[in-house]
Design a protein that fits this description.
The chain is α/β, with parallel strands linked by helices and about 325 residues long. It has helices at about 5-20, 45-50, 60-70, 90-100, 100-105, 135-140, 150-165, 210-225, 245-255, 270-280, 305-310, 315-325; strands spanning about 5, 25-30, 55, 75-80, 115-120, 145, 170-175, 180-185, 195-200, 205-210, 230-235, 240, 255-265, 290-295. It has 2 domains: about 5-185, Rossmann fold (3-Layer(aba) Sandwich); about 195-325, Rossmann fold. Helix 3 runs parallel beside helix 4. It is globular.
């Protein structure tokens, strides 16, 4: 079987879901004639035409707001936010409208839309093309937030998002687009939203991460294995709702936890995960819950040495794991 990149898995899914369900359509900047800035939508305009692959104005308000309206009347829009850095103009439509629609109507209306968001650093994009702002949406009930780390999960989670009845923020890390590859089943499959994956079994300590940081966590775990530390690595896959059961079972086994996120430490996803573990699993802990995160600065720097200084990596993760292991 041919190995598939993460971005190829996304393109495959868009083709398959648009073939399967004629209510599915795409909207975003440069997604039609240009095929998307990262070519995720290449070929879709030729196959499905301009009524289902819509090149929008440069207006995130229009992209998100129009998608909410379309979802309300029975369509299944897949709006693309070209870079996570530019999602802020659409926050009212996402937070005040999409996230609250089911609640405000007592379940009479739903908002089945999947917002594809290109995000992440380690690509030399500088402060306006490298942001990863999943924490803004993690804190909003009514939204599901996912970030796949593998082609299999990229395809399976995207299918689940498109077929679901609620709004999903689907984060795609640019660094992973063409870096990770794996063979995918030819048969139709989905990955459930809300279920984490134990990627590596271990007994001494648990490392929890998602997206690009999952790969850095695996690198750290493999290096630690050579030093006699058996680390269990969990890929959250879904950030909201996050899989407490899988993470808590691992905490019971290892009694030590290190949480890894790319975004800045303060106000991040892993702060909430840490607080929940401390509140609900305190009797099982043999050491403080520790975090490895991006720095608390306004944005990822452009200069490569500074960008690498900002981002967590395998060495930083391993260093924190060793410190926790001293307890």
């Amino acid at each position: 079987m041919k190995k598939t990149t993460l971005i190829e898995a996304i393109t495959q899914t868009l083709f398959e879901e648009m073939e399967r369900d004629d209510r599915v359509f795409l909207i975003g900047q440069d997604i039609g004639l240009y095929g998307g800035v990262f070519k995720a939508t290449k070929g879709l305009l030729d196959r499905f035409g301009p009524e289902r692959v819509i090149d929008s104005p440069i207006s995130e308000v229009y992209i998100a707001g129009g998608s909410v309206g379309a979802a309300m009347v029975g369509l299944r829009p897949i709006p693309e936010i070209q870079f996570a850095d530019f999602i802020t103009p659409s926050m009212d439509q996402i937070i005040q409208q999409a996230a609250k629609l089911r609640y405000r109507t007592g379940g009479q209306w739903t908002c089945p839309m999947t917002i594809r968001v290109c995000c992440g650093g380690d690509v030399g994009g500088g402060l306006y093309h490298s942001q990863i702002n999943e924490q803004w949406f993690f804190s909003q009930p009514g939204l599901q937030v996912v970030m796949p780390a593998t082609p299999y999960d990229a395809k399976g989670l995207l299918k689940s998002a498109i077929r679901g009845e609620d709004p999903v923020i689907y984060f795609e890390h640019k660094r992973l687009y063409r870096w990770v590859k794996e063979e995918l089943p030819e048969d139709d499959f989905t990955v459930p939203i809300g279920k984490a994956a134990v990627r590596k079994e271990g007994d001494d300590i648990t490392i929890v991460s998602y997206g690009f940081m999952y790969h850095r966590s695996i690198e750290a775990a493999q290096a630690l294995e050579k030093e006699g530390v058996s680390a269990e690595v969990i890929d959250m896959r879904t950030i909201s709702p996050w899989d407490r059961e899988t993470i808590y079972e691992s905490v019971k086994k290892t009694s030590k936890v290190v949480l890894v996120q790319e975004s800045s430490k303060t106000g991040g996803v892993m702060g909430e995960v840490s607080a929940s573990i401390t509140e609900e699993m305190f009797d099982y802990l043999d050491a403080p819950v520790s975090r490895v995160c991006g720095l608390d600065v306004p944005a990822i720097p452009f200069a490569p040495p500074m960008e690498h200084f900002f981002l967590p990596n395998a060495e930083k993760i391993a260093r924190v794991v060793k410190k926790v292991m001293e307890y």
